[in-house]
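User: I'm writing a tutorial on reading structure tokens. Could you give me a worked example: one chain, its sequence, then its tokens, then a sentence or two explaining what the tokens reveal?
Assistant: Sure. Here is the example chain.
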Amino acid sequence: MIYGLYPEICNQRDIAQTLLENLSDQYLYKDVLIWKDIRKPEMLDKLLQLLAHQIGCEVSTNELATQLGIKSNTVESYIDLLEKAYVVFRLRSYSQNPRKELSKSQKIYFWDNGIRNAVISNFLPLESRSDIGALFENLVISERMKFLQHHQKKIGSYFWRSYNQQEVDLVEKTSTEIKAVEVKYNTKKKHRVTRGFTNNYPEAKTFVITPENLKWVYQ
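And here are its predicted structure tokens:
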């Protein structure tokens, strides 16, 4: 959750922060930027910082553009570039009823928690963090996406939210079934998938993923 899962980082935890800072700089500014003529790399850096602080939240390119003082289509092109470089990925909103459910929203996650933390220069231990829930959510969803891609599973991945602010962290859809997944770091409370979703999709299989049952991610 702090240093991510790059093999080199896992094998050298004693210098993980230094390795991640170097990797982040090389990854973003030598490999990614060379793909396009980005004349203001500091904007890409600021965009990444904004995205890093919004994992688990809906992301609006218009709002990001306003914060950065650039055009929304420029933000969109930067995010597209970061996706192609496997720095971040998007989850689109799932909706079969646009009158009650968000249908054009998106969330953006980082493929690796260590890179995310390097972007905002925050390697504090878990007990000192205020973003622990977001870190766990990013870990679970990114690892699930890696698993699905690696095994070439044809599964659509989304999040869900109603206009009443009811939400499901991850929705998986195939031609034969639908799964609804809540991701919760706190194991002291009882959690369940919101009834707003299960009432609309009674056929859905529901799961709550905590640190105690992470093996679901790899099944």
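What the tokens reveal: The helical segments are 7-11, 16-32, 41-52, 61-68, 72-84, 113-119, 132-150, 195-200. The domain at 7-218 is CATH 1.10.10.10 (Arc Repressor Mutant, subunit A).
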